[in-house]
């Protein structure tokens, strides 16, 4: 799939969707299952390109991983059974694989080279490399180790206390995973809470981990115990249909079994604050994570300010939130979101470009954007920037445009949501 043209939607959207498994949790299930002793069964695994990179990385290190559809079985033999990969490891487009694997590879007693695609090769790795070097890791690469390809000479690490300078779950996770291999304790302190799936799963796999507010301490442990994982639906994928339901006249959409971990539900808080008609049912705890069914119906929306502590809870949803804001009455201001500039592309510039091409009143700022609504959107040709979240935002925008929208390349959608168009077309 390359170029895709979408006709405007001239009807209300209704139906039920089961979004695929959470990308962040799927990565972490493969990582911990591969480090553990025993068999880990993963259900509702996200069969997307990024998570396959994590599977291939561990298969290259000798771990037996089999996959049938969205069910994955890992026959873990523990950390000491991991072997030096014969070839450099290719991480494609996946920032999560790269940063979390850096933490692990730094503590394994062998040599690895890692690389990725054009987008990943531009993303900063020093945010992870710097704290790992403080733990004694030996990592080198372009730009003194900030840019891929990187080489890692694994060795004995030492524990440390680290306060995160960036709001990043990937950095927190890399340091905590390195802590599994370090002498003494490793403590990570966050200034703002980011997603905590790594901590939840480390607990489930029997790691020595203690949490107190925004501080997490892990003690070296080479004996993780296999634990089955059921992956909840990805709220970052559900976000596209939550916005579709909120902005398309007369719509009524239910998203079943969506992950509702509080560190990820900023999109729900925003929809409620904007006056969306939203309901959550069947909230329950599965494999240590909250899940539930979300129903969204079209309503008149109002602009709001989105800033501060909520930002890490909705960082990946900001592209589609900007579209939502273009269909809300009044001004929406998004601040404190400078992290958007170092995602698969500069998501501030990309969102502003795509939505202004479609006629929205949007202006980029240093750390976010300002959107004035409600603006009728027109058709046009838009660039996806090879970024899955920008491509899907463009596709959802086409539901409210007055003419066709052509996305230059929609292939990146398979990174996180391979069945996206099938689900979109299933809504009556
Ligand atoms: O894996 P990648 O490419 O970094 O994925 C993205 C995404 O949009 O899918 C970001 F571009 O999600 C990150 C997210 O932004 C996934 C993630 C995680 O699983 O830990 C954490 C967030 O990144 P960060 O840098 O804020 O920790």
What's this, in brief?
This protein has 13 helices and 25 strands. With 428 residues, the protein is α/β, with parallel strands linked by helices.
List the helices and strands and how they pair.
Layout (H helix, E strand, L loop, with lengths): L3 E3 L7 E4 L5 H13 L1 E7 L5 H12 L3 E5 L2 E7 L11 E2 L4 H11 L5 E5 L10 H9 L3 E4 H4 L1 E7 L3 E2 L2 E3 L5 H11 L2 E2 L1 E5 L7 H8 L3 E5 L2 E5 L9 E2 L4 H13 L4 E8 L6 H8 L3 E10 L2 E9 L7 E2 L11 H9 L3 E5 L12 H11 L3 E5 L2 E6 L6 E3 L5 H10 L7 E3 L12 H7 L2
Parallel strand pairs: 2-17, 3-16, 6-7, 10-12, 11-13, 20-21, 24-25
Antiparallel strand pairs: 1-25, 3-5, 4-5, 7-9, 8-9, 13-15, 14-15, 17-19, 18-19, 21-23, 22-23
Bound molecules: ligand SPQ.
The site of ligand SPQ has 19 residues, from helix 1, helix 3 and helix 6.
Helix content: 25-40%
Low-confidence stretches: none
What is the first-to-last residue Cα distance?
Answer: 24 Å
According to CATH, the homologous superfamily of the largest domain is: Enolpyruvate transferase domain
What general form does the structure show? globular
Mean pLDDT: 97
């Amino acid at each position: 799939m390359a170029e895709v043209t979408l006709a405007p939607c001239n009807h209300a959207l209704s139906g039920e969707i089961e979004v695929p498994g959470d990308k962040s949790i799927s990565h972490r299930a493969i990582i911990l299952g591969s480090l553990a002793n025993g068999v880990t069964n993963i259900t509702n695994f996200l069969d997307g390109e990024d998570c396959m990179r994590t599977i291939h990385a561990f298969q290259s290190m000798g771990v037996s991983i089999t996959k049938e559809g969205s069910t994955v079985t890992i026959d873990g033999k523990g950390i000491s059974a991991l072997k030096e990969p014969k070839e450099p490891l290719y991480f494609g487009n996946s920032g999560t694989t790269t940063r979390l694997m850096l933490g692990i590879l730094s503590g394994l007693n062998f040599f690895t080279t890692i690389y990725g695609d054009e987008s990943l090769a531009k993303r900063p790795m020093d945010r992870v490399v710097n704290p790992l070097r403080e733990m004694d890791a030996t990592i080198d690469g372009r730009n003194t180790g900030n840019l891929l390809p990187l080489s890692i000479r694994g060795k004995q690490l030492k524990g440390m206390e680290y306060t995160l300078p960036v709001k990043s779950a990937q950095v927190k996770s890399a340091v905590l995973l390195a802590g599994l291999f370090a002498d003494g304790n490793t403590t990570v302190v966050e200034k703002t809470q980011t997603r905590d799936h790594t901590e939840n799963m480390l607990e489930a796999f029997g790691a020595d981990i203690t949490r107190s507010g925004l501080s997490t301490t892990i003690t070296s442990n080479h004996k993780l115990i296999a634990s089955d994982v059921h992956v909840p639906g990805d709220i970052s994928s559900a976000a596209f249909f939550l916005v579709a339901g909120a902005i398309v006249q007369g719509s009524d959409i239910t998203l079943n079994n969506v992950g509702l971990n509080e560190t990820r539900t900023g999109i729900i808080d925003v929809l409620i604050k904007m006056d969306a008609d939203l309901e959550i049912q069947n909230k329950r705890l599965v494999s240590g994570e909250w899940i539930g069914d979300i129903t969204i119906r079209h309503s008149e929306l109002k602009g709001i300010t989105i800033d501060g502590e909520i930002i890490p809870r909705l960082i990946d949803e900001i592209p589609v939130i900007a579209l939502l804001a273009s269909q809300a009455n009044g001004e929406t201001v998004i601040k404190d979101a400078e992290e958007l500039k170092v995602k698969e592309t500069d998501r501030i510039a990309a969102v502003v470009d795509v939505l202004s091409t479609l006629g929205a009143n949007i202006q980029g700022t240093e750390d976010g954007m300002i959107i004035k609504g409600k603006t009728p959107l027109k058709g046009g040709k838009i660039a996806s920037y090879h970024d899955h979240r920008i491509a899907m935002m463009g596709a959802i925008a086409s539901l409210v445009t007055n003419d066709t929208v052509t996305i230059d390349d929609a292939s990146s959608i398979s990174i996180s949501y391979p069945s996206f168009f099938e689900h979109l077309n299933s809504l009556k």
